[in-house]
Design brief:
By secondary structure, the protein is of the alpha/beta class. The chain has 16 helices and ten strands. Helix 10 links the parallel strand 7 and strand 8.
Amino acid sequence: MTSSALRGTPLIERYREFLPMTDDTPVISMGEGATQLVRLDKLSECLELDVHVKLERLNPTGSIKDRGMCFAMSKAVEQGATAVICASTGNTSAAAAAYAARAGLTCAVIIPGGKIALGKLAQALIYGAKVLAVDGNFDDALRIVRELSENHPIALVNSLNPFRLEGQKTAAFEVCDALGDAPDVLCIPVGTAGNIAADGMGFGEYREAGRSSRLPRMMGFQAEGSAPLVRGEVVTSPETIATAIRIGNPVRGEQAMAAMTDSGGGVDSVTDEEILAAYRMLASSEGVFCEPSSASSVAGLIKAHAAGRFTTGERVVCVLTGNGLKDPDTAIAQSGGVIEIPADYDAAEKALYGD
């Protein structure tokens, strides 16, 4: 069945047997999941690997967060919630606001002031969320929303919510379904560490159910300026151009480390320069446009390959977590720019072909 056909069936219905659903769980869906795997032919040839990317940009709000949010929102409605709240560096806020609107719930979002890409902020606002910007980082925002959810009848839908991980683990199921088995290696960006923790759950459950024969080596990549799992300590002032993973204290860090080490993988960091190089390469050489934080998975693959961490011919899946249009400012800054000319043929010919 094609990806477009699969989107006709809600994600959580497709994987109902693996999810803690009840007869009373409503299905809040917008056709999320069933995102494509695309082989990177040029990079595969260059690295002598079989490299694929999972295009999570194809989800309704343009990021992987929709997987977990559809299920978290469904369970929130089941439990009688009338309002939801989250802290976010961008993608979670967009997903929460959209699915809350779909479910008829009020949504509040707290973001780090000045630290969110404009495309994501625009989404949260247009979907109708009440957006508060704090004078602090993501970890400050998360502390505040946790306290608010403890003191008021409002459901927290960050990755601390276990139903978020339940929904997000379906990405691992889809990878196995598309390839016929788990890949040799999965590379993924790490921010709150919810995605890699969820994938660890998903690959494990699929193997236990006999739907795959192995666990992939789980390799997570953080930005060098925001790499608490690599450093082994909280980063109090994380900084990176990859705003979606600018997080200094991952709430699922312990679970993510277990998923990586138990699978024979591990965590590493990549510089902003390495992230941007992979970001530009994906677009200009492979025709794949992702947000900068997504490109950290490919930047990490390239770095790990140079360090001899792969065997020739291994199948690798890199998760691209979000759409490039989430961060238009970075795309424009990393491009050649627009050449302005008069409105005549000669000027166009000269600009394209020279004298």
